[in-house]
Amino acid sequence: MSELIAYIAPQNVLPALSDCLLILNSSNSHLHVIQADDGDIVQRHYALQMPVQRLVFPPANCHWLIASLSNEPHPAIRTIQHHLVVTAMGLCSNHIDLARSLDIGIASNLSELVEAVLVRQLNDGATLLEAIAICNAQLKGDVSYICHQQGHAQFMFASCLGRPLFVGLESGLRQICCSSLRLIRQRANQVYAMNTGDVVRFGLGAPMLILPNGIEQALQMPAVNKSQGIPHYMLEEIEAQPETLAILVQKYGAGFSLPLALRGKLAGIRSVTLLACGSSYHAALVASYWFETLAGLPVQVGLSSEYSDRDVHPDAYDLVVAISQSGETADTIAALKHAQINGSPRTVALSNSPGSTLTTLVDHSLLTHSGAEQSVSATKSLTAQLLMLYVLAFTLGEARGELSKEQVTAAQQEMLDLPTAVAETLQLTKDIRRWAGMLHRKKNLFVIGRNAHYPVAMEGAFKLREVAYQHAVAFPSGELKHGPITLVNEELPVIVCLPWNLQAQKMLDDLKAVRANRGEIFILSNGNIASVEGTSVIRMPNGLNHLSPIIYTVALQMLAYYCAVFSGNDIDAPRNLAKAKTATLA
Ligand code: BG6
Question: Which of 175, 189, 463, 475 has a CA between 20 and 30 Å from the CA of residue 82?
Answer without folding.
Answer: 175
